[in-house]
Amino acid sequence: MTDWAVQVMDVSKKFRLYHERNQSLKSAILRGKTSRHEDFWALQNVSFDVIEGKTHGLIGSNGSGKSTLLKCLAKIYWPTSGEIQYRGRMASLLEVGSGFHLELSGRENIYLNGSILGMSKKEIDGKFDEIVDFSGVEKFLDQPVKNYSSGMYVRLGFSIAINVNPDILVVDEVLSVGDEEFQRKSFDKFRDLKKAGKTIILVTHAMAVVKDLCDTATWLNKGSVVEVGGAARVVDAYLDSVEN
Amino acid sequence: MSYLGEIWGSRELLQNLTNREVRGKYRRTALGQLWSLANPIAAIVIYTFIFSFIFRLPAQVGDPSGLNNYALWLVCGLLPWLFFNRVLALGTDSLVSNAGLIQKVYFPRIVLPLSLTNATFFTWALEMGVLVLALSLLGAFVLPWIPLVVVFMVVFAVFSVGLGMIFSIINVYFRDLAYLLTIVLQFWFYLTPILYPIELVVTQSEQLGLLLGTPLTLLDVYSLNPVQGFIEIFRNLLYDNRMPELATVVVALGWAIVAFVAGAWMYAKKEKQLAELL
C-alpha cells in the first residue's frame, strides 16, 4: 500500500442559504428569533487520497465545489461531516498578498505575511534573500507596498507563500499571476517543489496545466466526485462531458 | 488545552501583528507616536476647565501623597478609561474588519483582538509614563508604586480584551453592536466616577435611601460597574500613593478572569465557523 499525505474521508459541507437573515437587532426583534434558511450541500460524501509526493488537481465547472473543498483542505472551512487528515505540515495559498499592510515597506511585509502563513522569524531570515530574489522587487524593498505596481504586489505575495516550505501545499488558481516570465519562474518553482518530494493540491481551470503538472486528479460536479484517477484520463473525461 | 498550545505557537504572529498596528498607525505623520498623546491632553484640558473651574468640584487631596490637583486626579482615572474604550471599540470590530484575511488564511483568530490590545497597551504605557513624570514633578512619591501599577495595567488589559473578544464574536452575528457600543460607552463613561469623585455618589445615595422599594441603594448599583474598581485602584496607587483595598483588588481580579475565560471559550467554540459567518 502506498502512503497518503492527505486523506479526504467522506467529507460533506452544508451551507445555510438565508432568505431572511437576522443580522441586525431590529430584524431579530421584529421577527422573533427565527431566521428562515434553506440547506445547501456544497460537498457531498467526497473521498479521495493524495499520495505523498504527488501533485493532485481538482477540476470541475464553476459551482462544482472545488473552492469549498480547497477551503476545507486549507482549514478555513470545517466540514459538516467527514474528516480530512494530513501527514506533515500543510500550508495554503488561496490569495497572494492577503494581510499586507499598505503603509508598511516590502521588507516589513515579508516578515508580517510570512508569520501569518506560519513561518517563524528564523525561517524567514533564512529564506529572505530567496524571497526577494524570486519576487524581483529588491530595488523597492524599503518602499511602502502601496506604491507597488499590481504586478510587483502579487509577485512579492507569491514569493513569500511559495517559500513557506510546507510538506503539503494547497493552491488556488494563483499560477496566473504576473507576466509571462514570472509565470514560467513559478512553474519551475512548482516543479522544484515536486522534485523535493512535496505534495501539492491545486485548483485550476487550465486543463493543460493539470495534464502538465498533475499526477492524479479529482473531477467534481455539483459537490460530488465524478471521477478520481490519473490526471490525463480524468481531464479527458471531463473535457468530453463538457463538449457533449 | 490544545487550544492554548496553539495560541502559544502563534506568539510570533501576535508580535508581528502588534508591530503592524503600532508602526502602521502613524506612518507619514510629522509627529508620529506623539499624536497618541494629543487626545488625552485635549480631554484633560476640556474636563479640567469645565469641572474644576466652572463647576468647582470639591478639591481632591491625595492621602497620603498630599497632592491637590484636579487635572492630575482626573488623568489617573481617565487614561485607564481611554484604553478600555479603545480596546472595546477596536476589539468589537476586529473580526469584521479582518474578514478578508480570515477567509483566505488559517491562523488562530484570537490573535486579532490580542494583537490590537497589545498595540493599544503600548500607547497606554507611553501615556502612563508621561503621567508618572508629571506626578513626580508635582511632588508625589510615585516611583515605589510603579511595579504594582504595571501589574494592574496588565490585569485591566486582560479584563478589557476578554470583553472585547466576547463583543467581537457577537458583532459577527449582529453588526449593530459596533454602533450600539459607541452609545453604551458614552453612558458607561459618565456613570463611572472618572470626572467626579465617588463621594458625591455616596452623599446622593444616602439622601435617596432605598431605590423604588428594592433593598438596593444607588451606591450598590454603582458598585456593579467593574470598571469603577479598576479606576479606584489606579487612583489609589498613582494619586494617593497607597495600597488599594483588598476587597476591591479581589473583585477586579475576579472580573478579569471571568471576562477573559468567557472570551477565550467563545473563540474556542466559534472560531471554526467564523470564515463562513463573515
Please estimate the helix content of chain B: over 70%
Give the strand line-up of the largest sheet of chain A.
5-6-7-3-8-9
User: Strand pairing plus helix content of chain A: what structural class?
Assistant: alpha/beta
User: Could you tell me how far the N terminus lies from the C terminus of chain A, measured between alpha carbons in angstroms?
Assistant: 37 Å
* CATH level 1 class label of the largest domain in chain A: Alpha Beta
- Give start-end ranges of low-pLDDT stretches of chain B: none
Oligomer category: heterodimer
Q: Hey, roughly how much beta strand do the residues of chain B contain?
A: under 5%
Instruction: Classify the beta-strand content of chain A into a percent band.
Output: 25-35%
Task: Estimate nothing, just give the exact number of structural domains of chain A.
Answer: 2
Task: Please summarize the sheet with the most strands of chain B.
Answer: none
Estimated structural class of chain B: mainly alpha
Can you give the helix content of chain A as a percent range? 25-40%
Radius of gyration of chain B: 20 Å
Q: Profile the largest sheet of chain A.
A: 6 strands, mixed
Overall pLDDT of chain B: 90
Give me the CATH architecture of the largest domain in chain A, please. Answer: 3-Layer(aba) Sandwich
Give the overall shape of chain A: globular
Mean pLDDT of chain A comes to 84
User: Structurally, how many domains make up the residues of chain B?
Assistant: 1
